[in-house]
Amino acid sequence: MTDELRDGKLNASIEKIISAGGPAVTGDPDVDVLARLASGLRGLPAPGFTARLRAELVPGTEARGRSGLLARLRSGDSFDRGTGLAAAGGGCGLVAGACCVGGTVVNLLGFASAAAVATFIETTIPYFVAISLVMMGGLLFWILRREGVGRVTLTRSAVRAGAVVGSAYGVVFAATMGLSMAMGLY
Amino acid sequence: MLTARQLEAERRLVESSQRNPRRFAEIYDRYFDRIYAFALTRTGNRAAAEDLTADTFRQAFENLSRFQWRGVPFSAWLFRIAANAATDYHQRASREQALPEVMGEGDASWENRLIQVETRAQLFELVRRLPKDQRRVIEMRFGEELSINEVAQAMGRSDGAVKALQHRAMETLRVWVGDSHD
Fold first, then answer.
1. Quick check: A144 and A154 in contact, CB under 8 A?
2. Does some domain include residue B119?
3. How many structural domains compose chain B?
4. Are residues A35 and A96 in the same domain?
């Protein structure tokens, strides 16, 4: 059965749920499972109602609550967008280049000689890169799992998310290495 | 069942809300889904569930200063207010329209009711965690009861794309619900 056909069958069943209260049996076990789950969503609170009532009870909290930064971070909303993915990739890139940035700062502050910092960077950079790659892999796994992608869309989603995260990682890591190179430390 | 640490965090939140009413927003966010799910289960229709939810939180807000912590979860107090509001609703409804209770006292066991409420509340909470586009589709379809065509127009997409998003959202929810039951 094609995806379009399944989408249509599920939609017809959802229409029945919304108008009549119960899912229609489609004969497709996969679709029927989803339709049964969808019947639990009947009466889902309208987003406007939730926000209006909060604002009425506690004026001035409209912008907080679930739309607040902490709640968004908790629910992972910020990772739905490209900016979130790029920030995550950039963060991993910064971890990879932490020895370069750290070494440069230590050298600039006069706590270590250029030769000592260069040796430190050369020795430790593989470990920092390894840690950052593990972090990036874990992050991608978490994103894909969170989005609940199926086998069909797994490759496409992984490539798309991986491209954004990887690009940001590369740019930030290159920048940190460039910094230490410019200082003659690597 | 709350752990001792969660109970302690809840006590701190309630006491801080008693001192600073603005913090009631956190209590509201924490319990909204469960109270609304309870109201929906007891009344069976959205408008009544919204009225009952609003009544419950208004009463809770107005009486919060009188609430005394006795080591019982705050939700027990909230549910008692909601249950009283539901009883009032059914008495009013039966006087005005002779409506039968959707989930009246004799309909189902407390255990079944509780499971139904918790399942609904969990689903409502999970919808909020969906990726943005999937969440918008589900909220517009079930929360605002818009047709596929109306959702498509609101999102600037084709009907087919919205149906696919709706399908993907339901698949996501199925995976998450399955995970939480494992």
1. yes
2. no
3. 2
4. no
Give first-to-last CA distance, chain B, whole Å: 17
Which residues, 6 or more positions from A145, have their beta carbon under 8 angstroms from its beta carbon? Answer: none
Compare B50 and A185 and report the one with higher pLDDT. Answer: B50
Gap from A164 CA to chain B (nearest CA, Å): 17
CATH assignment at residue B42: 1.10.1740.10
| Residue A103 located in a structural domain | yes
Number of domains in chain A: 2
Chain B residues in contact with A50 by the CB 8 A cut-off are 32
More confident residue, A141 or A91: A91
- Is B149 in CB contact (< 8 Å) with chain A? no
Q: Looking at the structure, tell me whether residues B90 and B160 fall in a common domain.
A: no
Low-confidence ranges of chain B (pLDDT < 70): 1-2, 97-108, 179-182
What tokens were used for A131? 């840690």
Task: Give the domain range for residue B149.
Answer: 129-181
**Tens-digit pLDDT profile for residues A48-68:** 899 899 999 887 765 444 444
pLDDT of residue A63: 46
d(CA B40, CA B96): 20
Cα separation, A47 vs B140, whole angstroms: 9
pTM: 0.63
**Inter-chain CB proximity B25 and A18 less than 8 Å:** no
Residues B139, B141, B146, B148, Cα dihedral to 10°: 130
- Contact A148/B172, CB-based, under 8 Å? yes
CA dihedral A150, A152, A158, A160 (to 10 degrees): -120
How many whole angstroms separate alpha carbon B8 and alpha carbon B20? 18
Residues above pLDDT 70, as percent of chain A: 78
